[in-house]
Design a protein that fits this description.
48% of the residues lie in helices and 17% in strands. It is an alpha/beta fold. The radius of gyration is 67 Å and the shape is elongated. The model is unreliable at 1-17, 72-82 and 774-790 (pLDDT under 50).
Length: 804
């Protein structure tokens, strides 16, 4: 039959249930150490109480600053709207970059100045019970350096003074280990290692007479660095120009003074910087105005000289006059040319010898009056002749006088034409000369205009620059005279409620710490423990079933099972084992052989064998216990039998020896003992003999149960040798004693089927200590307990201490 079959018959233990039971096991494991938790919480709460007594409350200090960020509608300044040039030059109108101003507020320069102004590098304190009281602004004395020797050490300098009377104080110093007390008058220079200094009394002095004051002097730079780290300057919202300043201090007045002084220094410095920039700009503008004024004067003089030399008053008007006069002159030339043409036509007519030619028509406006008169007379005569020709032939003598008159008029006209032509030619020459002059003047106009425009442009540029500089100077002067800071204090520094210590939080943290530290201690102790503490460690790693658990019992007697109902839970546990063995053997007949071994010595193997045998004997079964640990026997000692009695080693060594004289009777009815006998030098060789099988077979005929106590298997192989004659194998592991690495060895022998029907007995279980174990209550056996007072007063303290 397979050794796996009987495992199914073993009753399931509650510890095999996972899930919610895991939590219960963990909880029980930690609750077992409840005295440790009570002590931890009590100590933590006590420490919290003294911490609250000794710790000065810390207050949050806050202030709010608003920056004026100009908008497009408010970008104008002074009397007129500023141009881009003016805005770029005027330092009083530059927009504020809030992020840059935050860096300025947090700068080391400003904070160091605050430290110096408020003398934060000197601290006055007074011991008052558990607390150390800071005497900021209420100190009875004032420390002042007359001359400092170098730089103070990072830890600063500390000393105590005793205020003796109104005029005297005692300086307490250490000279090595010796206390030196020297009396000094106030305002008296005192020299020591860090310099020359003096103490002056304040208005609060009378309240502190006959008291001791501690004075701490530190390096101002280091104090400033500390405040710089402690002050936070943050932009409240990216879309709103509000900046929050915050810090903490045990003295609210000092925290408020620090922030208020910092804000005041910042605003004053920002305004001074703005005014300095404005003054620098005004000086620069004055220099530029002087330079531009000279350049403008030179440009005006050059333009004037040029126009004088070129005769220019108004070049555009003069050019227009040139064009108008030239047009008039051109018209005159055309009229002259037309008159000459008329004269030429008349001259051709009057010079002709023919009388039949017609007098040319002439515009009267083209003839001068004398010529017009002669022309009219000639026209009349030519008309008369034409009329006569209509009625009278040309040969008629009547034409003679008329022709003579016509000839005379023609001669007169011809003479007149000669004189007029001469006059027209002279006029033409004059007009042509005038026309040439006009043309030359008009050709010079573009060049003159370009040069004049260049001069005028240069003059206008200088004039514009001069005007802009005058405007800028006026606006900067107005702003400089009425300049205000770009920031406004919305909320002065004010203190809030105590930030730390918060009493509920301190006690809450202390309570948690009182729980966490014992838990960590238990967990760490368990994590560092290399011993088996849980049956599940064996079950999960090996697959070997647990036949049962045996509780730890602090008893000097090796036999804990009695024939009656025991007052100890361990007796019932052995009875459970007896029942489980019945299921494991699968029968209750004769000749059942049970082997018991362990990994190493001290795990309780012999104790288990002895009490299992006793338990079986109490059921009226005939039982024999074999002491086969031939190297270190203990069974005989458990039953008070002599270890010198012949036994197993004798039987195995001597084939002729009979069992009758070897078996010893115990004081338990039905239980016999076959002791080890003399310690043999070769136990393994003896056990290998066929004589062992003969021994078991002979015993099976007489006894119902044969229980074999074998040596530890991890030390010697005797148990494996003996296993060939056994039906069931019990492997004892002890809680908190058996090493964890033995689990691998158990798994190995189980996998290799070295023992028949291998099961494990978990011995020495301390109920509750590791979160599991049989929960037998002493109340179940209280009717048998006759030493209640002893348990109440003697065992309780021991039990409590053990739970630590």
């Amino acid at each position: 039959m397979s050794d796996l079959q009987p495992q199914a018959t073993i009753p399931a233990s509650p510890s095999n249930v996972k899930g919610a039971d895991d939590f219960n096991e963990i909880l029980k494991k930690y609750l077992y150490h409840w005295p440790l938790y009570i002590l931890g919480v009590a100590l933590a709460l006590a420490l919290a109480y003294f911490y609250l007594l000794k710790t000065n409350p810390v207050y949050p200090i806050t202030a709010t600053l608003k920056f004026d960020v100009p908008t497009e509608s408010s970008s104008g300044g002074g009397l007129t709207t500023q141009s881009a040039l003016v805005q770029s030059l005027d330092p009083t109108s530059k927009p504020v970059i809030v992020e840059n101003e935050i860096d300025v507020i947090q700068s080391e320069k400003l904070i160091d100045q605050v430290v110096l102004d408020l003398k934060l590098w000197v601290t006055y304190t007074q011991k008052s019970g558990f607390l150390t009281k800071d005497l900021y602004k209420i100190s009875p004395v004032d420390f002042n350096f007359i001359k400092q020797n170098g730089v103070l050490p990072p830890s600063g300098e500390s000393f105590k003074i005793y205020l003796k009377d109104k005029n005297t104080f005692v300086l307490k110093e250490l000279d090595g280990k010796k206390q030196l007390n020297k009396s000094y008058k106030f305002s008296t220079p005192i020299k020591n290692d860090f310099g020359t200094w003096q103490l002056n009394t304040t208005a609060n002095y009378d309240s502190y007479i006959d008291s001791t004051i501690n004075i701490d002097v530190e390096d101002p730079d280091l104090v400033g660095a500390g405040y710089q780290k402690g002050i936070k300057v943050e932009l409240q919202d990216k879309d709103a120009p509000f900046v929050n300043l915050s810090t903490t201090d045990i003295v609210p007045a000092r925290g408020k003074d620090v922030l208020n002084s910092l804000l005041a220094l910042y605003q004053r410095g920002a305004l001074e910087d703005k005014n300095k920039d404005a003054q620098k700009l005004l000086v620069f503008i004055d220099l530029r105005l002087d330079s531009v004024r000279k350049a403008l004067t030179a440009a005006e003089s050059k333009t004037q000289q040029y126009r004088t030399n070129e005769g220019i008053t108004d070049l555009v008007a003069q050019a227009q006059d040139y064009r108008t006069d030239n047009q008039v002159n051109t018209k005159s030339l055309n009229d002259n040319k037309l008159q000459m043409a008329v004269l030429d036509e008349l001259d051709r007519f009057v010079s002709s010898s023919k009388n039949d030619e017609k007098l040319p028509s002439v515009n009267p406006s083209l003839l001068e009056p004398g010529m017009q008169t002669l022309y009219d007379k000639l026209s009349d005569l030519e008309l008369q002749r034409a009329q006569l020709l209509a009625t009278t032939p040309p040969e008629n003598p009547i034409y003679a006088p008329l022709d003579r008159q016509i000839a005379t008029l023609k001669n007169q006209i011809k003479d007149k034409i000669s004189s007029i032509r001469e006059s027209l030619l002279a006029t033409r020459a004059t007009l042509l000369s005038i026309d040439s002059g006009y043309r030359k003047s008009l050709k010079k106009v573009p060049a003159l205009n370009t040069q004049d425009n260049d001069l005028k442009t240069n003059q206008d540029i200088e004039q514009k620059l001069y005007t802009d500089l005058l405007t800028l100077r006026e606006e900067v002067s107005l702003r400089y005279g009425s300049s205000v800071s770009d920031s406004e204090i919305v909320d002065d520094a004010h203190a809030g409620k105590v930030k730390w210590p918060m009493v509920p939080i301190v006690y809450g943290l202390a309570f948690l710490l009182g729980l966490v530290l014992p838990t960590a201690l238990v967990y760490g102790r368990e994590a560092l423990n290399d011993r088996i503490i849980s049956r599940r460690q064996i079950e999960d790693a090996t697959g070997v079933p647990i036949l049962g658990e045996i509780s730890y019992l602090d008893s000097k007697s090796p036999i804990v099972v009695t024939g009656t109902r025991s007052k100890f839970a361990i007796g019932e546990q052995f009875r459970v084992l007896r029942t489980n063995l019945y299921h494991l053997h699968e029968h209750n007949g004769k000749g059942r052989v049970t082997l018991c071994t362990s990994s190493i010595g001290g795990e309780g193997k012999s104790f288990i064998c002895s009490n299992i045998a006793v338990t079986m004997a109490y059921t009226s079964r005939k039982v024999i216990l074999l002491e086969m640990d031939l190297r270190k026997p203990k069974v005989s000692m458990n039953f008070g039998l002599s270890s010198d009695h012949p036994g197993i080693s004798d039987f195995l060594a001597d084939d002729s020896l009979s069992l009758e004289g070897l078996i010893q009777h115990s004081n338990i009815p039905g239980l016999d003992i076959l002791s080890c006998g003399p310690i043999a030098p070769n136990p393994s060789e003896l056990l290998e003999k066929r004589r062992l099988e003969d021994l078991i077979e002979e015993l099976k005929k007489v006894y119902d149960d044969i229980v074999i106590d074998c040596p530890p298997i991890h030390l010697v192989t005797d148990a494996i040798i003996i296993s060939r004659v056994t039906d069931v194998s019990l492997y004892v592991a002890r809680q908190g004693y058996t090493y964890k690495h033995e689990i691998e060895f158990i798994a190995e022998i189980h996998a290799n089927h070295r023992f028949p029907k291998l099961t494990v007995i978990f011995n020495g279980v301390k109920s509750g200590k590791h979160g599991y174990g049989y929960s037998y209550s002493d109340k179940s056996y209280s009717s048998y307990n006759t030493s209640k007072e002893k348990e109440k007063f003697g065992s309780v303290i021991k039990s409590i201490l053990r739970r630590f």
